[in-house]
Amino acid sequence: MKFGCCGAIERMPALQAAGYDYAELRVVDLLPDDNDKAYAPVRRQIEDSGLPIEALNVFVPPHHPVVGPERNDEALQFYVTTAMGRMQELGAALVVFGSGGARSTPSGFDVQRVPGQLLDFLRMAGDIAANHGMDLVIEPLWREKCDTINTVLEGYVAARESGHAHVWTLADWYHVFHNDEPLSNLSDSAPRLRHIHVPVPPISDKPEQPTDAGFDAFLEALLATGYDQRVSVEDNGNRFSDFDTEARQALAYLRDRIGH
User: Fold this and answer.
1) Does residue 231 surpass a pLDDT of 80?
2) Does pLDDT of 85 surpass 90?
3) Whose CA is closest to 57, among 37, 83, 38?
4) Cα–Cα distance measured from residue 83 to residue 25, given in angstroms and rounded to the nearest whole number
5) Please, are residues 260 and 2 in contact by the beta-carbon 8 Å criterion?
6) CA-to-CA distance for 252 and 246, rounded, in angstroms?
7) 2-6 and 53-57: which strand pairing?
8) Rounded to the nearest 5°, which phi and psi values hold at 17?
């Protein structure tokens, strides 16, 4: 198992000091809409950190809609190609497709067209990922945040229906919890499960969060599937206040329960 943490580029030195195996950055911070000159100092800052970048999230911004009447296939393909080129240069293995703003159904748009648009995007992005030696991982999202691909099982079905060897799915305890999704869906989705997100786990002297109670059960269900790849901490609940100390505590919690 490898452990990472989602966050800003500026936090990479703290993640390395805490002992994480990799950082999970935001794709939009690689400035895919901008030219290489604008991106160059960002790349240097990342490379100078010394910590591997194995995964990235916040992939497609809302101004490049994947779903709806404003979708521009040419612009979307150019954005994805530029983004994945930069990710490949950094050594990334996968990109997380959450992007709730880009894949939510606009008001008044024909919902019957949405599944086809999503599959078209998954196949297009899967082809580009393959060309760059990467994988695309669908992130099922809380229904309150997005109306498409909400459960891990739905992510598994979408990945399978794409028919693409480089399209996978993700499980995130934060979204699983808020969607009241059964943990049995982890085992049912295991053939396409390629990445994991967890909220900041229970750590000392921090107020309890709703996801705390089932946190260990989620980890146990995950281990029961045989999963042994990457797990990234994502502070969805805004739990971190002393990042340098608490990021280290979060990692220790995970390693104590599933590190091997």
Assistant:
1) yes
2) yes
3) 83
4) 12
5) no
6) 10
7) unpaired
8) -65, -30
From residue 125, give the alpha-carbon distance in Å to each of 85, 131, 166: 12, 10, 9
**CB-CB neighbours of 11 under 10 Å:** 20
- The overall average pLDDT reported for the chain is 96
Closest to 135 (Cα-Cα) out of 72, 192, 77: 192
Instruction: Give the closest residue to 16 by CA, choosing from 8, 4, 28.
Output: 4
Q: Which residue stretches of the chain are H helix? A: 12-18, 36-49, 73-89, 100-103, 114-131, 152-162, 173-178, 184-189, 215-224, 243-258
H or E segment at 242? none
Report the 10 Å Cβ neighbour count for 50: 9
pLDDT of residue 152: 98
123-180 pLDDT, tens digit each = 999 999 999 999 999 999 999 999 999 999 999 999 999 999 999 999 999 999 999 9
The tally of CA atoms less than 13 A away on the side-chain side of residue 18 is: 27
Model confidence over 91-104: pLDDT tens digits? Answer: 999 999 999 999 99
Q: Which residues, listed in sequence order, are joined to residue 197 by a DSSP beta bridge?
A: 172, 232
Cα gap 116→118, rounded to integer Å: 5
Look at the block and give the residue holding tokens 């002992």. 19
- The SS3 of residue 131 is helix
Length of the chain: 260
| pLDDT of res. 206 | 83
260 pLDDT higher than 70? no
